[in-house]
Design goal:
Elements lengths: L9 H24 L21 E2 L5 E2 L5 H13 L7 E10 L10 E2 L2 E10 L6 H9 L11 H10 L3 E2 L7 E4 L11 E10 L5 E8 L7 E10 L4 E4 L11 E7 L2
Antiparallel strand pairs: 1-2, 3-5, 4-5, 6-12, 7-8, 7-12, 8-9, 9-10, 10-11, 11-12
Length: 253
């Protein structure tokens, strides 16, 4: 007759936990030892990324796999370090104009003329959207003077540093859209990615200068359709109008 030894039923469970932890540690070790900012990786064609079975929680929601703690700390540090709002410089000039044509409240009126204050803006506020995206990624490649987002993407594409699929830490570049005040495109930094079963990707993004005043829109949710190469904002200031915006792709490390 076999005797039951207390605690022996836990041995298989402990063994499985140790194996899972070892696998996570191996992934983290591999990500730390693999250089990511030396040579740009080759462009990834649609459907060429290996898909792994998604992990889910008790409620059936997708969750992230093993994350490198150092990468998480670096990303959080950069979130704070890369954004320091610097409004554009302004100067106030007082001038005399005919009272009938004065559009602003008058300061003093003399001889049929009104003294009005005119505020002039010089320079641009910071950080601009592209400068913020470069800071978050650490990418200083393809600087072509006052490079536009569209120019940055075209240059990165020639260097094999773009992808048609999203990756955390990449930069999503929206195509030029003159009707919406984006004649040179617009870049957003991808914080997190999550692929749905229908092939649509849910992205958590951050970007600046969405209002031409260099304010920060952080952790907005967007949906990316890789078949149509379109992006729709689900939250944030752009959620009311930014639907099915054309996307060029993703600049990656």
């Amino acid at each position: 007759m076999n005797r039951f030894v207390p605690g022996t039923a836990l041995f298989p469970l402990i063994g499985l936990l140790l194996l899972a932890l070892a696998g996570c540690s191996a992934k983290q070790s591999e990500s730390r030892t693999t250089p990511q900012e030396t040579a740009p990786p080759a462009a990834i064609a649609p459907g060429s990324v290996e898909e792994s079975a998604p992990e889910t929680d008790a409620a059936g929601n997708r969750r992230s796999g093993c994350l490198d703690p150092a990468q998480v700390r670096r990303s959080e540090r950069d979130r704070a370090a890369c954004y320091r709002l610097q409004p554009a410089a302004t100067t106030a000039v007082t001038r005399q104009v005919p009272a009938k044509s004065a559009k602003s409240a008058h300061i003093a009126k003399k001889g049929g003329k009104t003294a009005t204050k005119v505020v002039r803006t010089s320079g641009r506020c910071q950080p601009q959207s592209l400068i913020y995206a470069r800071c978050r990624t650490g990418l200083a490649t393809c600087k072509l003077g006052d490079t536009s987002p569209v120019q940055w993407f075209a240059c990165a594409e020639k260097n094999g540093a773009t992808s048609s699929l999203p990756h955390a830490g990449s930069v999503l570049v929206l195509a030029a859209n003159a009707g919406r005040g984006m004649p040179t495109g617009h870049p957003v930094y991808v914080e997190e990615v999550n692929k749905h079963e229908n092939g649509i990707w849910q992205l958590r993004i951050s970007h600046t200068n969405y209002d031409r005043k260099c304010h920060l829109d952080q952790d907005a949710t967007v949906l990316f359709d890789p078949k149509r190469m379109t992006v729709s904002f689900e939250s944030g200031p752009w959620a009311a109008w930014a639907k099915n915006l054309k996307a060029l792709g993703f600049i990656q490390r």
